[in-house]
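Hey Z.,

So I finally got round to the adenosine-5'-[phenylalaninyl-phosphate] thing we talked about over coffee. Here's the setup:
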Amino acid sequence: MMEKVNQLKAAFAERLQNVADAQELETIRVEFLGKKGSVTGLLKDMKELGNEEKKAFGQLVNTLKNEITEAIAEKTQALGRLAIERQINSMPDFDLSAPPVLDRGSYHPITLVQRECEQVFRSMGFTVEDYSEIVTDYECFESLNIPKHHPARDMQDTYYLTNGQLLKSQTSAAQNAIYKKYRRALIEEGKPIKAVFPGRCFRNETTDACHENTFFQMEGVMVDKNISISNLIFFMKTMLSEVFKKDIKVRLRPGFFPFVEPGFELDISCLICGGEGCPSCKHSGWLELCPCGMIHPEVLKAGGIDPEEYTGFAFGLGMTRLAMMKYGIADIRDLNSGNLRCLCQFTQDA
Ligand code: FA5
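And the result:
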């Protein structure tokens, strides 16, 4: 009996040493600890033993069971750490101390990400629109169901000009103009509105590793008959897998924006720390990347579209944060720094 226990112990140790991933580890766990596993199988032999021997053998099997459970838990953690290391190592090299290459010009990483996103959306039939950086209060707030004195304005304090205009705090400021530009084609010719509009945004807020006072977003809207949340999720997933060229862990949770109902926050697992928590993700392991939702009826009405007949989705992709995640840039402020050591390293991707 004792020999059987030792043999099993040795067999487990050997299997554990060579395990490559979590799936294989689970197979081993079932093989040894499952209902029909080898450790459970040992107990069947107990029938042949006397009472005293039964007790001693039972304890032996229990100890073995605990040892195997513990070893599996340790291995699970080690494999998790390994997976994170692999993910970090697979990110493109980004070295702030590398000497700048000054003999040629280079594209800014945000330009590269913006072009890539534009191309993805163009291939799905979206038009790419340009819009002003200086907008009116109506464009940035009122037309988006945010009347004066609405508390949602506190989240987006921006810079006001003496003539009452303002530097846009969100690319959503172009929504109203886009609806008005395309509503005739929608209503008279049945052409869905499918548009993205990238742009620079401004907010009067304190900067940190993931917040800038000047950053880029890309807004997207789609309006037609029978547009639903499934359409929204499909386009979001397609965009992320095209940009990152791999599966990215995302989570969708409820979010409040007066111009959508229902509204969501779409977060991605932080690629700087692999989800462990770091300054780039405010130590949460997740990064708010792309809030979205179904366009509020009042917003469609303001754009001259009948919400009884048409529905649509909208999203506001944080393009500066997307560039951080794609290129492994831990501090958002490097992107506006004008530091060529950082910025010229992305030329080869152009
Ligand atoms: C908005 O700006 C909404 N207009 C987005 C939206 C559009 C919602 C359409 C629903 C429908 P928010 O303030 O959360 O939402 O910003 C959107 C994204 O922009 C954030 O997830 C983040 O990725 C990025 N962002 C916001 N503030 C900053 C900042 N200070 N620095 C860098 N990126 C930022």
